Amino acid sequence: MRSLDQARAVCEQYHPGLLKALEEIPYAERERPGSKVIELFRAHGGVGLLIPVEYGGFGAAPLEAVRVQQALGSLSPSLAAAVCMHHFTAAMLYALAGQEGRLTPAQVELLHQIVPQQKLMASGWAEGRTQQNILSPTVTATPVGGGYRLSGSKRPCSLSRSMDLLTASIAVPGEGGTPELAVAVVPADAPGLTVRPFWGNELLAAAESDEVRLEDVFVPQELVVRTSAEDPHRLDDLQTAGFIWFVLLISAGYTGAAAALVDEVVTRGSGTHVERSALALRHEAALGLLEGAARAVQDGIEGEAAVAGVLVARYAVQNALTENAAQALELLGGMDFITGSHHARLAASVRPLAFHPPARPAAAEPLLRYFSGEPLDLA
């Protein structure tokens, strides 16, 4: 299909040879625990996709990033899901780096190391929502000399076994002792940080979505991002930007998995012209809405309007992908199902989009209020 070819061409532009390297691994091996797909991503410069050029990255625009995610999702839904967490974390942190005074010198120095050393960042954030700083942390922070001691866990946590850094939302004492939300950057080899088995489904198993546990892990003060009296909206801005990127990129990865199925039906000539056309039209309509949301962000839409736009695209895509995956399997036929599990697993791999927050029921009433002219509050 033309749209999938276009996505793969963009991916090849940024990460030459990555798609070919993925295709050389049988699908079942690509998607199993311990797969090499994340290391292939790292080896082909995947870490720097959204990192600004001045920090050694590619500085890809939203539409390009969405297309790269589609291409990855078409070959490895696990990889697309996993690296989404790195990318949206990078988008948040480097957004702060572009604004003078918002990060400490130590934080800026660390961000300069990410691309040259191909460091992967896992997300210990609860996946965000607008009009909140960060969701109530699952990691507690106790002040000690020079920093904090962290305890708690994040599960599931994609990239848990390949990460170099973990970014975790924490609560720290603010003025007058009132808890204040902050973000800690934790090296993966920090004493007290361990990874334990958690993911039990064969789908998306290569995403390394296990439990990351922190037991009395020390983080120096200079690696904690906090608000301040002079900059009270620092984490509000951070979370909104991260939320928008997360919704776009996670939706794009699953769209790629569905695209691979539609492409197979069209290439084989399965079913009638009318059936194939209906399948392709539904896919292209969903893809057009998602890419339209990416273009809007690229053109400067922000805040509540951007959040609402990406959520509308996400839920419309979610509907279309599930229907298309089922229809594609039916058109590919019983013998395709009997002789191999590749396409059945691809079809099943689009379903987890519904499980990423915010779930549709949680967003339904806030979106209705927003459409009626009220503020968008997903709290």
From TrEMBL:
Identification of the protein by name: Acyl-CoA dehydrogenase family protein
Residue stretches making up the Acyl-CoA dehydrogenase/oxidase N-terminal domain: 28-99
Q: Does the keyword tRNA processing apply?
A: no
Q: Which UniProt keywords apply?
A: FAD, Flavoprotein, Oxidoreductase
PANTHER family named in the record: ACYL-COA DEHYDROGENASE (PTHR43884), ACYL-COA DEHYDROGENASE FADE28 (PTHR43884:SF20)
Q: Name the source's superkingdom.
A: Bacteria
Instruction: Read off the SUPFAM superfamilies from this record.
Output: Acyl-CoA dehydrogenase C-terminal domain-like, Acyl-CoA dehydrogenase NM domain-like
Q: Does the keyword Transcription regulation apply?
A: no
InterPro entries in UniProt: Acyl-CoA_Oxase/DH_mid-dom_sf (IPR046373), AcylCo_DH-like_C (IPR036250), AcylCoA_DH/ox_N (IPR013786), AcylCoA_DH/ox_N_sf (IPR037069), AcylCoA_DH/oxidase_NM_dom_sf (IPR009100)
